[in-house]
């Protein structure tokens, strides 16, 4: 059904869902922008940057326009966690400017902050994907979204689900990818954070063979969407190669910098009026 060509404007919005693993292992430290941070701190900063970027892309001379619906879902312990106060579900991008908090300066300038780091408990990924299914199904069914660019879901984790086996995760991911607008199916991008500094990453693979024999990496590959053709030039540039034909929306053993690059590609390749 490849299309992914709809122009995004106030009448034809698109949606983003960011699923954030906030389990106990996210307290491990990694290097991000030359600093030692916990994975949770790095992911909070990456997510805040993405929201800020979406705000900038929606800003016009008359203010921020309602181009994007954004949902943030944390998963840890045995439950999902609202990340912005008690707000659940989609939030129009126009509301984020009023909800920002001051963020300590990193790299010489300050950014607004919506997401704070957290790390505790297990990894209920199945429940998070189920929640995303229900939200995407409802969003795609709205008459005003029928012709819109379909939702993009980022699932960022550093481990396997604690509330479902591989078959469960594969099944719920297939269901999530099945929801669609007239412009294409929902895009699921799986990003697995590295636990070590020296582990080889595989980013936007063209074939499952790039993943070797790692069963969990192959599961993330199987569950992720094939990326639309209009994303290929940016993906090829990130991979340092000539443009390929098919890329899968996943990364295994990603560094924090690669998470930033993947989320940028998943959001900036859009046609915004």
Features:
273 residues; alpha/beta; Rossmann fold; eight-stranded mixed beta sheet; 14 strands; 22% strand
List the helices and strands and how they pair.
Elements (H helix, E strand, L loop, with lengths): L13 E8 L7 E4 L2 E4 H20 E2 L2 E2 L3 E9 L2 E4 L8 E2 L3 H4 L25 H17 L10 E6 L8 H13 L1 E2 L2 E2 L1 E7 L8 E2 L11 H9 L8 H8 L10 E5 L1 H13 L5
Parallel strand pairs: 1-6, 1-9, 9-12, 12-14
Antiparallel strand pairs: 2-3, 4-5, 6-7, 6-8, 10-11, 13-14
Helix pairs in contact: 1-7, 3-4, 4-5
Short description:
This protein has 273 residues and is an alpha/beta fold. Helices cover 31% and strands 22% of the residues. It is globular.
Q: Can you give a write-up of this model?
A:
There is one protein chain. Strands 1, 6, 7, 8, 9, 12, 13 and 14 form an eight-stranded mixed sheet that branches. The two termini are 23 Å apart. It contains seven helices and 14 strands. The chain is α/β, with parallel strands linked by helices and 273 residues long. It has one domain: Rossmann fold (3-Layer(aba) Sandwich). Helix 1 runs parallel beside helix 7 (256-268) and helix 4 (166-178) runs parallel beside helix 5 (215-223). The radius of gyration is 17 Å and the shape is globular.
